[in-house]
Amino acid sequence: MNPSMVLRHAAPLHADQATDGRAGEPPRETAPVAVPFQAVYAEYFRAMWRTLRRLGVPQAELDDAVQDVFIVVHRRLPEFDGRSLRGWLYAIAVRVASDHRRGATQQKTLPLPEALVDPAPDPARASEVGESVRLLHELLAELDEPKREVFVLGELEELSAPEIAEALGENLNTVYARLRAARARFDAAFRRRRARDERSVR
Amino acid sequence: MTPETRSFLAAVRHAEDPSPGDESRVLAALHGALAGGTSVTAAGASGAAKVALASSVSGLKLLTVLALLAAGAAAGSVFVA
Lengths: 202, 81
Fold this sequence. Notes:
Chain A has helices at 37-54, 62-76, 85-107, 114-117, 123-128, 131-141, 145-156, 161-168, 172-201. Chain A is mainly α.
């Protein structure tokens, strides 16, 4: 089966959402609208993939996790109220990531950093994942789960605070406070790591 | 956050984007799961889908697939063969 035959060309969902979820601006409030599944997949596959990974889904489970997200999307798309597609999708991703993390946690006997216990299985792929990505995962692992979620959604996926609140089902003020705390912790960990690296070079 | 941290985040923001092969592989698996009662394993190399019988799918996922099939594409799926 040629996957290119599976999906028809998908038109952008909305002018301000046709960016693979990269735009920092919040989507417009829109009336409920029928959104074609294949358009959602085409627009958000990459965003869901990297978000699940950064929320702690092991590389080996990433295919299944992304598939799980889109199975839920497929099932629930008729219920989508048209308000914020991004918030709705990331809410699904957060829940799927949480489920996969818990499953992975149950199987592990030692809470080792994922960078140590979950190397990319494919050497070619591993070579593409540079030191910066490895460092990113180590730093994200220093955040507790709630801070990690707001940090990934806010700083890496560039969701607005209202979108994060919708995705996490949290109060907006809670999101702002948690995001501030997550930024401070990540920043401190990054600076500590850089200082340590500089000392080791000398 | 410091400018250095922000610069680091900007550099890694899309560093883990999936390859076209990743997208094709997952799409093939998803298509199989939603449409066929068979599942295309996600382990296929270079997007070459390997079709596995539904019996090889984990029980939970199989139930999900069957439920979706029973729903008769109620979601208005627009997958096309």
